[in-house]
Structure formats: C-alpha cells, structure tokens
C-alpha cells in the first residue's frame, strides 16, 4: 500500500515546474505582480526565482512585428464550439473567459485545447511600431500539457461587436467570477481575413515561460469606443511592453 500511495503521489505531482506554473498561469492563479510601480514589468524577474525568465529570457513576448518572412506557414485549423457558456473571471490582472473542454486548434499535426481567452489594453503586440486599442488572447494548451498556442487578435475602434458587448456587459468590476446563462459564439471574435504572423515566444505575464507558439492575426476586429471604454474603466493598462526579438524570425502567410 505504501508503494502504491507513493506512486499515486508522484503521479499527482506536477510533471515539471513549468507545467505547474503553466497550469497556474492558464488558470490565472499567480499573483504578486502588477503592470506598474515596484512590481511592474521591469521588476518581474526580481520578484520571485520562478519569474527569472522574465528578466533573462531570450524569446520573450510580446514583440513589435515590424518585419516578417513570407514562408508559407502551415494552416491552422480552428475547431471551436459554436456556443460556450459565458463564465467570466476578473482575476486581478485582466478579464478572462474560461472555456469548457471541446474547442481546439490544430497545426503541424498537433492539437491544442482552448482553455481561456482574455484581454489587454492597449495591445501587447505592435504591428509596424503601431499599438492597437486592445488585444484578445486565446490560450490553447497542448495535449501533453507542455506548451501553448496562443491566438492574438487586435481590436480597433469601429463598429460594435455584439459578442464583446455580451462579455463586457457581464464582466465583474472587481476580482471574482460570474457564471451567466448567456452563451456566446467566439468565432465573432476572429477577423474574416485569417492572414497571420507566427513566432516562438513566451507568456506575457509572470512566469514568462518560453513555451508559446504565437499566432497573431494581421487584421483587427472592431469594437465600439463605448465597449472599449467599459473594459478600460476596469483595466486602464494591462499590457507588457514589447520585448527584444533577438535571434528569432517572424513568419507570415
Ligand atoms: Zn494575454
């Protein structure tokens, strides 16, 4: 029995430190960091040994996408459920919608499961040195739990987006969770033009783990100025500044 319980304990333990932090990051449980002041982005690497990569990493995100190589990157298959229940968490860093199992993306023969999506204001990625009003990140975890594919969608002021309207109407203004009866179709949060950039990077929040395949769509979606203001009233600034590209390549299709 002892042997069995030791084995059970081992299996229950995180497979690797990165998986533990990844799971925490995916669930938004890591705390004690901010977007300004003594615990702001320039200091993340000093706040905890687990956050060291934020400071010393060479493949950090976000970046300024100011040049790219046209390289025929493989297609990405987006297999999202057409309706998911609107479960929204204000986790103290952003507004996050937790997704039930069943939505995936596939590329290069690997499948990634959509865990959550969330928002940044202003955008974290830049396009030719240009910042967008907001950016939405769809976080997909690999089936082996060891890496992520994140789809980035810019949001610019324009026509109102009905799905963003539902999300922003229901989001908690202070830390906490709201489970609504509303269902949403996330495909309304993707641009019609699926042209995109691909590069290898990191989480844009501590622990800044370098385990993310980034897929950033070139064309923004729109939201009304009023919708954007609803988010900004809660999170005026939740974006990490652009990081050095170093020896990486940005590919496009
Ligand atoms: Zn993000």
Concise synopsis of the structure shown:
The radius of gyration is 18 Å and the shape is globular.
Structure characterization notes:
- There is one protein chain.
- Residues 1-20 have low confidence and may be disordered.
- The chain has one domain (15-252): Carbonic Anhydrase II, CATH 3.10.200.
- The N and C termini lie far apart (56 Å).
- With 253 residues, it is of the alpha+beta class.
- It has six helices and 16 strands.
- Strands 2, 3, 4, 5, 6, 7, 10, 11, 12, 13, 14, 15 and 16 form a 13-stranded mixed sheet that branches.
- β6 and β7 form a beta hairpin.
- The chain has helices at 2-12, 17-27, 44-47, 53-56, 162-170, 225-234; strands spanning 64-65, 69-70, 77-79, 84-90, 95-98, 104-107, 110-120, 126-127, 130-131, 134-142, 148-157, 176-184, 196-201, 212-217, 221-223, 251-252.
- It is 19% helix and 32% strand.
- Bound molecules: zinc ion.
- Zinc ion is lined by residues 118, 120, 137, 204.
Write the layout of secondary structure elements.
Layout: H1 2-12, H2 17-27, H3 44-47, H4 53-56, E1 64-65, E2 69-70, E3 77-79, E4 84-90, E5 95-98, E6 104-107, E7 110-120, E8 126-127, E9 130-131, E10 134-142, E11 148-157, H5 162-170, E12 176-184, E13 196-201, E14 212-217, E15 221-223, H6 225-234, E16 251-252
Parallel strand pairs: 1-8, 2-16, 11-14, 11-15
Antiparallel strand pairs: 3-6, 4-5, 4-12, 5-7, 6-7, 7-10, 8-9, 10-11, 13-14, 13-16
